[in-house]
Design a protein that fits this description.
Helix content is about 65%, strand content about 10%. By secondary structure, it is of the alpha+beta class. Among the domains are: about 1-35 and about 270-435 and about 635-790, no CATH class; about 115-175 and about 530-570, no CATH class. Strands 9, 10, 11, 12 and 13 form a five-stranded antiparallel β-sheet that branches. A hairpin with a 2-residue loop joins β11 and β12 (about 595-605). The longest helix is centred in the N-terminal third of the chain and has 35 residues, at about 235-270. About 45% of the residues are buried.
Length: about 800
């Protein structure tokens, strides 16, 4: 007790305890998140900024596609109607569509009442005698067609056919098949619904709540052991599933990693107090890393905590080195000797690891920056605590289990490891040959390579999206302005240039918020095109004279009255659309962010050859709208990813160069630095070749993993090379034991990530886990032949 009391009065212990208290205070107020938008890349161009915003909050991010499998068509239709009815009463959804004519009468009434403000065909020419004559001829001809009964009642009010033209225009998109009054898949084997959430797709809590509401509605519609099965897909579903997977994996990976490392250390130390002392640097590093990320970013991502399991595996190495390497002699002298003899090697290893993780700080992915900061602060803290705090916390009679027998066995192996150099050379040549054979397909060129969504879920999404005809929104024209009216006017200017492309079948069509809510200027121009009642009556009489079907002018008095009423109406406002499906369209396509209004015009690609992007860009440019952008979302996503691959290659090379410079300065010789790096580079080459042989395309995550192999493996290479170069004694059996135990702890930390369902964590595990083992093995094989003692 007295020894413990004296230890607690040590200045280093006091500072450490105060530091932990501050970290605990920060962590207590920390917000933890699993929002994958943190791992969306930053956008260096305007087109890519649009891409990232659409992925976070765009129209498609709010869509949940629902399928109902099983049973017969009638039963599926009933379930679809019951689910849709319940969800339409839920404020978590802004729209539920399953093909039922819900709200159709309200929409038709709104279109009828405001047809002259909405119709782009309303021009002065349209209401001239010639224009009225042509429009009347079309409407009267329609009376003799199969649709004559439907137009007969509408004709006295709308002889120019504005309502029919508007309805046709608004229903121009692709529609799903109908079966028993509801939407069905193309093969008729399932009913389909389309739900649009009120909240953005990036709000995973709101998306999770909406998904739970759909499941609850389905459970009420198809209770018990019914033959029906609910299917759901969409960005929100993916985001929630991925978030849940991240949190589940983080919990079990962290628990498994800690448990395995604890078992390993207990097997070596055979002492719970020693184990707890050995975990001091680790726990301090974790606390410091979480607090630092919280202070800098305001939130800590779940993947950061998952990646933190690797920190446990590496940071525990430092206490292992201290305990094992200082064993066997009187405590005070052994600690002094350890600091003088071993600490410079460990310090250099910590610095090389920091150089490796530092490259992540400059990544274009904010989430990777968070991982880098967490690791750097955590490893630095663990190293500092091992050097300046842990020695003061050790009791006077501190000792660990005798590991000399294991050390001697390892020393015998290490002494003969150089005999494997020829085999290593052959392995490297084979690895290089594999890389040359796979060089063209080695790197993935698409951002989708980083997708956390399983292939089965992607296939389901593709099937349901085709069934529902949900918008793909690959091609998009975006305009922005300082206010809502200016954004609508600019959307109209772009649409004026896009319409000829529709007529020429360059594109199949487009959407625009101005189609449902024209700008005030457009509405005033249309209203101004309407003649007075007296003029209209005169023109109408003249237009009727030469028609093939004789109709008295008095029949169209309702038309004249409607036009006169519209002339006195104010322009439509956004609030006037409430309660109609057009309000949903405007809300989806016209948004405000940070005081800037954005109008989006999604394009529908025509069937056949690839979209003529240059023709569309020329049309957008011809609109003379400032900052109007045509965005091919997939092309921009792939281009963005390719840019970041190149950027991360540069960053990784920069991190590697920093490690090289550090080693050259520390070892005072480029040749010695090269010998230290040789086993690490060999390990990287073999791991990459193994991944290529397994058919894995490399991503930027593998690139970072390669750098981490160098950063983590440098600890082992330095012990095998640095001490000999620095004139130290030959590497001892105790040191070999410490390296093996430390390597096992690191592999447990990184290797367990390979079992994760999250691609990011899995990639690090598959890359760094085997790389750490090979780095130790290759370091022993390439170590100086005189560098071992038995």
């Amino acid at each position: 007790m007295r020894a413990v009391s004296r230890s607690l009065r040590q200045p280093a212990i006091i500072v450490w305890l105060c530091f932990l208290a501050v970290c605990a205070g920060v962590i207590a107020r920390t917000h933890f998140s699993a929002d994958l938008s943190a791992f969306l890349p930053r956008a260096p161009t305007e087109q890519q900024r649009v891409l990232v915003e659409q992925l976070r909050d765009g129209l498609v991010s709010r869509l949940i596609l629902v399928g109902i499998d099983g049973g017969d068509a009638t039963g599926r239709a009933n379930v679809s109607r019951n689910v849709a009815a319940k969800l339409r009463e839920d404020k978590r959804f802004s729209a539920i569509n399953n093909g039922e004519p819900v709200g159709q009468a309200r929409d038709e009434r709104f279109v009828f009442e405001h047809r002259y403000q909405l119709s782009p065909a309303v021009t002065p020419e349209r209401f001239s005698v010639a224009g009225l004559k042509d429009a009347l001829a079309d409407s009267l001809d329609l009376l003799t067609s199969s649709a004559g009964m439907m137009t007969k009642d509408l004709l006295p009010h709308d002889p120019t056919g504005e309502v029919a033209a508007l309805v046709s225009q608004l229903d121009s998109g692709a529609q799903p098949a109908m079966q028993d009054g509801v939407w069905a898949s193309r093969d008729g084997r399932r009913a389909v619904l389309l739900a649009q959430t009120a909240s953005a797709g990036s709000d995973t809590d709101a998306q999770a709540s909406a998904i739970a509401a759909i499941r609850e509605a389905f459970a009420h519609a198809a209770p018990g052991a019914s033959p029906y099965r609910l299917l759901m897909t969409g960005p929100g579903v993916f985001a929630v599933d991925t978030r849940d997977t991240i949190m589940r994996d983080v919990r079990w990976l962290s628990a498994a990693s800690i448990a395995l490392i604890v078992v390993l250390l207990l097997a070596v130390y055979r002492s719970v107090p020693t184990l707890l002392l050995g975990l001091m640097p680790v726990l301090s590093g974790v606390a410091a890393g979480v607090a630092a990320v919280s202070l800098v970013f305001g939130t800590v991502h779940g993947l950061t905590l998952g990646f933190g399991t690797t920190l446990i595996g590496e940071a525990v190495d430092y206490s292992i080195y201290l305990f094992v390497q200082s064993a066997g002699v009187e405590r005070r002298e052994s600690l002094k000797d350890w600091v003088a003899s071993f600490w410079p090697t460990i310090r250099l290893g910590v610095l090389t690891s920091i150089c490796g993780f530092a490259s992540m700080l400059f990544s274009g992915f904010p989430g990777l920056v968070q991982l880098g900061l967490y690791s750097i602060v955590g490893l630095s803290t663990a190293g500092i605590v091992t050097r300046f705090v842990l020695p003061h916390a050790l009791p006077q009679n501190f000792a660990i289990r005798d590991v000399s027998r294991l050390g001697k066995r390892l020393a015998r192996f290490a002494a003969h490891a150089s005999r494997l150099r020829a085999a290593l050379a052959v392995l490297l040549l084979a690895a290089v040959a594999i890389l040359l054979m796979h060089r063209h397909g080695l790197w993935s060129q698409e951002l989708s390579a980083l997708s956390p969504v399983p292939k089965a879920s992607q296939d389901l999404d593709e099937r349901l999206r085709a069934d529902v005809g949900a918008p793909d929104v690959r091609y998009l024209v975006v305009v922005s302005a300082a206010n809502e009216q200016a954004a609508l006017e600019r959307a109209e200017a772009v649409a004026h240039q896009l319409q000829p492309l529709v007529d020429a079948h360059v594109i199949a069509g487009y959407e625009s918020p101005a189609r449902y809510l024209p700008s005030d200027a457009a509405q005033r121009a249309r209203i101004a095109s309407l003649p007075s009642a007296a003029d209209l009556r005169t023109r109408l009489a003249a237009a009727l004279r030469d028609q093939t079907i004789r109709v008295k002018p008095e029949v169209f008095e309702p038309f004249i009255a409607d036009v006169e009423a519209v002339r006195a109406q104010p322009p439509l406002r956004r609030a006037d659309l409430q309660g109609t499906s057009m309000a949903l369209a405007v809300d989806s396509l016209l948004t405000e962010r940070d005081g800037r209004w954005t109008a989006m015009l999604p394009l529908r690609a025509a069937e056949g050859p690839e979209l003529q992007a240059q023709t569309i860009r020329a049309a957008v440019a011809a609109s003379q709208v400032p900052d109007a952008l045509f965005v091919d979302m997939k092309a921009e996503a792939d281009r963005l990813y390719q840019n970041y691959v190149r950027e991360d290659i540069r960053l990784s090379l920069g991190g590697f160069a920093a490690i090289v410079v550090l080693l050259v300065l520390a070892l005072r010789s480029p040749v010695r630095a090269a010998r230290t790096l040789a086993p690490l580079v060999a390990a990287v080459i073999v791991v990459i070749a193994g991944l290529a042989l397994a058919g894995k395309s490399l991503t930027i995550l593998h690139l970072i993993g390669m750098l981490l192999i160098v950063a983590v493996g440098s600890n082992y290479a330095l012990f095998f090379n640095y001490r000999a170069h620095a004139g130290r004694d030959a590497i001892s059996p105790q040191t070999l034991v410490s390296l093996v135990i430390a390597n096992l702890a690191t592999v447990l930390g990184f290797g367990l990530l390979a079992l994760s369902s999250v691609p990011m964590l899995k990639t690090f595990g598959l890359t760094v886990g085997p790389g750490a083992i090979l780095a130790l093995l290759f370091s022993a094989i390439l170590a100086p032949r005189s560098g071992f003692s038995r």
